[in-house]
Design brief:
- 45% of the residues lie in helices and 0% in strands.
- With 149 residues, it is mainly alpha-helical.
- The longest helix has 17 residues, at 103-119.
- The two termini are 38 Å apart.
């Protein structure tokens, strides 16, 4: 949505872009008559043209925030279900660290910690593997590999 319906007053908007937004606005009232459901999504609501966001354009606006620690904890329990875990794992602590981050980060940690445990010839996932997976989410500058010259 932010790519197609971005603010017409922004510096990089051309005439073609202004025409696209005008056409979209003109077609919105026709949608219910033609049994068309318009669903739009964006991560940047601030960049959407104000005319699109006026009352009456869309019937409902649903805001989905980043997950909190309890939501992440439930996801972690679900993703780790059936995997061999050591007794030293603290999913509550991991959920606290991941609060406010995308759910894909939690899924990455589960997959990566499993991979690391297999690589280390372990029969279970332990806190060491989970911590290493967590650290690999945002590698430090000294650990980044350079490609090219």
């Amino acid at each position: 949505m932010d790519a197609f319906l971005s603010d017409r007053n922004m510096q990089n908007s051309g005439l073609h872009h202004v025409e696209e937004i005008s056409e979209f606005l003109r077609r919105i009232p026709e949608a219910p008559e033609k049994k068309i459901l318009i669903i739009a999504m964006t991560n940047r609501i601030d960049s959407i043209d104000p005319a699109i966001l006026r009352h009456g354009r869309f019937d409902h606006i649903i805001q989905v925030n980043m997950p909190d620690s309890s939501e992440i904890k439930e996801l972690l329990y679900s993703l780790f279900d059936g995997l061999p875990l050591s007794d030293d794992i603290d999913l509550s602590g991991l959920a606290e660290k991941l609060a406010g981050r995308p759910l894909s980060d939690a899924a990455f940690i589960v997959k990566e910690s499993g991979r690391l445990s297999v690589k280390a010839n372990k029969n279970f996932i332990d806190s060491e593997c989970i911590e290493a997976a967590y650290k690999s989410l945002s590698p430090s500058q000294e650990n980044t590999r350079k490609i090219g010259f």
